[in-house]
Amino acid sequence: MPVEKSISRLLWVLCLSAIGAASISLGFGLNVGLAKDFSTTVENKAKPKLVAPPDMVWIPGGEFAMGIFDAKCADSAKDALPVHQVYVDGFYMDRTEVTNDQFARFVKETGYKTVAELSPDPAEFPDVPVQDLVPGSTVFTPSNVKDGCSLDNALAWWSYEKGADWRHPSGPASNLEGKGNYPVVHIAYADALAYCQWAGKRLPTEAEWEFAARGGKVGEPYVWGRELKRHGKWMANTHQGRFPAQDSAADGFAGLAPVAQYAPNRYGLYDMAGNVWEWCQDWYRADYYQMLADKGGVAVNPQGPESSFDPEDKQAKKRVQRGGSFLCNEVFCTRYVLGSRGKGEVSTASNHVGFRCVRFGP
Fold first, then answer.
1. What is the pTM of this model?
2. CATH topology of domain 2-360
């Protein structure tokens, strides 16, 4: 079946990404100092002329150092190096990830169908019977497998679920009852764009997203500071316990959490680490930061590269994702670390990918 072939390729990409994420985890649970590569963040002083739109906050913009905070991670986070100077204009950003209730209003008004709700295009899979081309999406299905990363055990963690979509996050038997304030998931890139257009907003650039997540802090590894836990308390919805089989919910949630369950950052943004991956508008290129650094000076409002290139999956068209998800943990995936990058094939959705929107200020 094409779906099985497609998900196998997807899982291979996920697995390769996880290898890199796992290898940058060493030491991130410790207290660390600031990296000498980072200069002081200089925030714009201009204030917006209007009150922030509902459910959004003002991000002042300014100049900052962008990239992974610690150069010793170079071997495993090359796509987030070198650290380089960036300037972004001020903008408004959603306080939280877009929720099921918010997305439902969009669908009710427009009748929009997400990618996961549509059958795969027969033209893309000419050798497959039409009856096998069914709507669905990828769902994390943990089982008792050994830790590590290979295609075989990755397929044990994930499955292509027929009928899984934003309304049915775990498959056709699931629903959104009592989950209106959870982030909407099973969102492909086109779905996020469609919502943003309806809402009069857009997706953030990768630079805007990182500036906002840092909250004016300089070079710190986490949205909330220098320690993974503050006073012994988990600060984001991530994975505790033995991955992938068991999430101990030490942070208060096993799996996905409602939005805004942890303290916001200095700009008033919630869940900029963990919970769900968030789409950015930029194409993903592993060497993009080096391209910017080679130009010298300060990159002003960078919009990302002109096209996608992932050396681990050269044929796929990918956009940047940021923030990590409820599946990230200290020993396997540390993509909740500030400056680290994610990537997603544009037509692929899953139950740990969502988004939030931005708009320019007056």
1. 0.89
2. paralog of FGE (formylglycine-generating enzyme) (3.90.1580)
